[in-house]
Specification:
The structure is a homotrimer of 314-residue chains. Chain A is built from 13 helices and nine strands. Chain A is of the alpha/beta class and 314 residues long. Chain A has two domains: 11-134 and 292-312, 3-Layer(aba) Sandwich (Rossmann fold), CATH 3.40.50; 136-291, Rossmann fold, CATH 3.40.50. A five-stranded parallel sheet of chain A has the order 7-6-5-8-9, with helices on one face. A four-stranded parallel sheet of chain A has the order 2-1-3-4, with helices on both faces. Chain A starts with 15 loop residues before the first helix and ends in an 8-residue tail after the last helix. Chains in contact: A-B, A-C, B-C. The A-B interface holds A 43-46, 48, 72, 74, 76-78, 81-89, 91-93, 95-97, 99-102 and B 35, 38, 54-57, 60-61, 63-64, 67-68, 73, 77, 230, 270-273, 278, 281, 289-290, 292-293, 295-296.
């Protein structure tokens, strides 16, 4: 894809060279993201950080990533714009807001709203989540986390567990990873929460080894990466409610130490409840806090690419 | 007026030379407002952006305008301060807040509150709207839009339509325009929504040609500028509810192309409902989105004037 | 204490040399806090300003203090994080947020939460108030106000009045002042609102002259500093409700002019209701607005100390 002035709406925009470009640039962001090296490439630029739905941490990540590159941030929070409460269309809102900024990051509960905004705006629009639609920077940071922790995305076994049916993050990550080679996907979830058929079929059509199972523990030993997500128990079927779903699909320190490879990487998009127990936190395998830091790096990389500033790095 | 350290409370503070000064400086802000040229004249200054009433876009405009000049912004949102909820007076709130900033922009639903704040504060206060009182920077940006689009404010026919009775923006704009010469004012609205008598009388006393009418279409051909505002139908009289007020006072692409001058300028303070139909958007005559950008320039000009930095521009 | 990378959780962390270091550095912040001198020592640093409880002014003070030193601020407001609403622990929230910043200031209604955050975070945490727990920067700014107004904290008579029982600020200030010498503490309040016994005993054990009284006026003549706080009348006992508590414990201009030393310093943490009447405002003795400005200086001093930048001042 051509990154300069691009809208970032969907994971489908990215092919392997795009992802490698983002990963390489994200690597270069490491010390800048941590505040060790000062960078001012976005000095004078303004990010309109429009969060029409509560997501404190994503909002802070988009904002801090922009600040680390020297830009200014103009944030909104709250379920709606005051103008929208008066009946204004999203098109009008965006046409006004774009006068105040150089790039828009928008979280909006309405599926498809990011594309509508992008169609209207003359400045680039980054989809920061549009309902059950997409949240591409989350998928990019997940893929980058794998790359940063394992040194590659190819030739890995990834076990995804939890709510694979409704979980936007696992769908998007599976799609992004399908740009790489020799990956074995293990989807370990109760039947009612299994990965949708279209994603399974797409992965198989591309030649990937795909396993669907309700046995997590039996599949932990070969996992290079375990990606856990929250499973909303109120959605469980009658049959499964009788089972101890909690402990079956929970990642614990005991399981990591007794069942997993020594260098397994444990990921979670957070927030979590108890599907990854807190005794995993001190293990070097626990990558879920580092994920947040990688997310900063990925968003910084995207900003630089969108503004055509990636070539200006020293 | 003496701009340095001035409070900006009312359109009545501005005479023609003041307006021309603001317009000239706003012109110079054009490339800076768009992020093409970096300016740091307000480096180190802090704007306290106090919005005690929801107005997302005005708040963002005040903030981005300050950022474009290199300053820092400290914003509040929400209907009230937590301290005010405990019974604190506005005077105390302002006396504390001014310790944290160099200038205050305040939106407050209480009419007259801006003057109270200005009386108490040692830093300049900009009225960002005080209920049914004033919102002077909106009027300034409206007047500047006319100047930017037409190259002058003198010698024009402006047709204002919609809710001219309760609409704060049209009252203030009419007052500001009365500083210029040879303007014909056409006020096209249902009888119940006509411009208040005191404004009509004031304009006539100053020698302006003023027409009040409920016929919009018949008066479009001579208009250089059409300024449309929202008309709240629940306020219509019994008699008018029977009429198709919507289409009578709506600006459509067909009307612009068939009834108006080729270079007519269509303005609206936004948000709109359907009083300007969306098919007008692509026409070069549609100035309502550009208005938002002009608003940035005007607010930047005011900041520079208040801080006495207008002479420091390169 | 070792300031660099320190968490600021409690007033108990500070001994006399620590306080003198903070005071001296706060003095140096005076012109920078007022925007007279530009300082960029925190350029590139990010403050995560987490206010999980409404406190507009404290939030603005923490933010502006950081801006005055050239840093960037990433603020949250609202009663909770969206992730916490989904059941996330404070530990997880902090472990994510710290990836986005270099220092965290947190207001949280849960007592003890600041220490929990500090234990988890690798970046310094400043307690901006944790329920009925502590709010150490408020106490520091109160003590600094005394030092700035009187030139010393030693050898003074301070009269504290209002709600001394539940008032967090007076407890913390008394503790901090007990690091100095030859102070006479007069606690003037209704019996039901007197200072807790453990604080009285602690002050007496350290050799201070302590008086508890329900007679404010009779003790005003010897006061060098009067520290007034709000008294919630709904908490008054039956017996006291009959009395005119309002006027007994109110500070008025007449009392200041007729009963007090000419150079008495009147303080109040604000917001106030009528326990200090507004006719005191114009008197040079009224220090309560200046307190807010001193608060900026103290927070700036703490930021510089935490980042080890205090030695870099010119």
């Amino acid at each position: 894809m051509e990154f300069q002035n691009a809208d970032i709406i969907s994971v489908n925009q990215f092919d392997r060279p795009d992802l490698e470009k983002v990963f390489t640039l994200s690597d270069q962001m490491r010390e800048i993201a941590r505040g060790k090296i000062r960078n001012r490439l976005l000095d004078g630029k303004i990010l309109a950080n429009l969060f029409l739905e509560a997501s404190t941490r994503s909002r802070m990540s988009f904002a801090s990533a922009f600040s680390r590159l020297g830009g200014d941030v103009n944030s909104t929070t709250g379920m709606t714009f005051s103008s929208m409460a008066k009946g204004e269309s999203l098109e009008d809102t965006i046409s006004v807001i774009e006068q105040y900024c150089d790039v828009i990051a928008m979280r909006n509960p309405v599926t498809g709203s990011a594309q509508i905004a992008a169609d209207v705006a003359n400045v680039p629009v980054i989809n920061a989540g549009d309902g059950i639609g997409e949240h591409p920077t989350q998928a990019l940071l997940d893929a980058y986390t794998i790359n940063a922790e394992k040194g590659r995305v190819d030739d890995l076994t990834i076990t995804m567990t939890g709510d694979l049916k409704y979980g936007r993050t696992v769908h998007s990550l599976a799609k992004l990873m399908s740009n790489f080679d020799d990956i074995k996907f293990v989807f370990a979830a109760p039947d009612d929460f299994q990965m949708p058929d279209d994603i399974i079929e797409d992965l198989r059509a591309k030649g990937f080894d795909v396993m669907q199972t309700d046995d997590l523990d039996g599949n932990l030993p070969e996992a290079d990466v375990v990606y856990s997500t929250r499973l909303q128990k109120e959605r469980l079927s009658e049959a499964d409610r009788g089972k101890d779903i909690n402990s079956i699909f929970q990642i614990t320190r005991a399981k990591v130490e007794q069942l997993c490879k020594k260098d397994v990487t444990i990921m979670h998009p957070l927030p979590r409840n108890d599907e990854v127990s807190t005794d995993v936190n001190p293990l070097p395998n626990a990558a879920y806090y580092r994920q947040a830091g990688y997310g900063m790096q990925v968003r910084m990389a995207l900003y630089l690419l969108i503004f055509g500033k990636d070539g200006d790095l020293e």
